[in-house]
Each structure stands twice: as structure tokens, then as C-alpha cells.
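Section 5.1 Outputs to date
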Amino acid sequence: MPRPYERDCPYPVTERYRRSSRASRFGIDAWRHDNRTVIIGLGTLVNVALILVGGLLGILLGDRLEERTKATVTAVLGLFVIVLGGMSVVDMGSDALAEAAGPFAMIVILLSLVFGALLGSGLRIEDRLEGLAVWVRGRLKSESDGDGRFVDGMVTATLLFCVGPLAILGPISDGLGLGADQLYVKAVLDGFAAMAFASTFGKGVLFAAVPVGVIQGVFTLVGFLAGDVFSDAQIDGLSAVGGLILIALGVRLIPLRAIPVGDLLPALVIAPVALAFLS
């Protein structure tokens, strides 16, 4: 059965051709679908560009804001992140998830977070993210930002931009040739968030664009090579886990209780894998 981006292809499409036509699917000889040119990977490039633009605007704006105003902006961002997370968590009660896991859907999500936290703590993901931010700042040898502000900005922005479901599902959809609409929405949101964060945390936010490009590029490649990767149940499970992680990140921004959000990231892998066995 032809994939959506193959319906208007003027020549026969075989499975062998699908795997041998990377140049075409990456836009060198892009096919047209719904009067649009499908250029795989463009969504991530736009996302990275808007993060940089938003971050630069935020840095320029930050010099004109009082510390009290910056703290308020950070708290507002925290509340907004919590709301975004809550909107994703509702997928925990989806029909697809209930059909795949039955009455154990919530338990699957809970255990995904628990085992993800254990694995993430063992791998020290949060510490490594902070260490990477410290290393980057050391290489820059800048005295304009405090150590803590640079590290907090890079780590917080990286987590915010990379843990949401759109950061995974958007690139996969892009890689499948279904279009980058999800990533364009994410790019706009990330651009405004980068502007707000950079006004508070400084240039560390700009360097969050690097892991965004790498991570989303990997998932674009996954979608390109693997075809339809996730079932509806896995997508909903991924969305629910990502939503809970975003809520934890929002709580840390307000702040109420410091949660090592990076250590929860393996749950994003565990949830869809567990649901694959249950489906």
C-alpha cells in the first residue's frame, strides 16, 4: 500500500526503491503531496533556527529586565510547562492505551517512570547534562554569565525542548514523509520559550539548539528508515510519560521541589517498548 508521500509519485514505487531513494526523499528530487514539496529534515532545521533567533532576542531583552521580572517570567514559564504536560497526560486514558494494556494502562505508565528513574539515576543523565553545560561554558571562557545561570539555562532549555512528545513524534512523522507540521508548531513554541528563558538565563539557552538538532535528527532518521514505528497505544503512552516529565520540569522552574528530570528520560523509551509487548 503506498505511503502518503508516494501517492503522487509518477513512477512505480517498490520496497526496494523505498530503501534506495534517500536522495529523493531528502528533497534533492522531492516528491509533491497535496501541492507541497516534502523536504525531510526541514522541520528540525526550522526548529533549531527559531531557538537561536528567539534566544538572541531574549539575550538582548534580558539586559533591560530587572531580576524580579526575570524570576516572574521563569515562574510563568514553569506554570505553562505544567499545563502543557497536563494536556499530554490525559492521553493516559485513551481508548488505544486501554485496548492495549487493559486495566493496567496507568500501571504501565507508572512503572515506566519508576524504572526509567532507576535507569536514568544509574546512568546519571542529569549530572551528565549539567557536566556538558559546564564544559561548554568553560570552552567559551565567558565572564558575562554566572556559572549557575549558564548551566541552568542550557540544561533546562534542553530538557524542555527535547522531552516532549512533539520532539519525538514530530521528527518521526517528518522522516516518514508525512510533513513537518508538528515540528513547525514546536518550532514556534520553542522560539518563544527560548526568548523567555534567554532573557533570564542568558546565552546558555542558545546551546540547547545543538542537542535539539541531534536528537530530532536521529528520530527523523528512525522514521525515514523504519517506516511506521509506533502504534496508537505507544504514541499515547509516550505522550503521557512525556507529559509527566514536563510537569516535573515545570515544578522545578516555579520552584517547589527540585526533581532530577533528566534521570526520568529513559521512561520515554520504556513506555512504548512495554506497550509493544502488551499490544
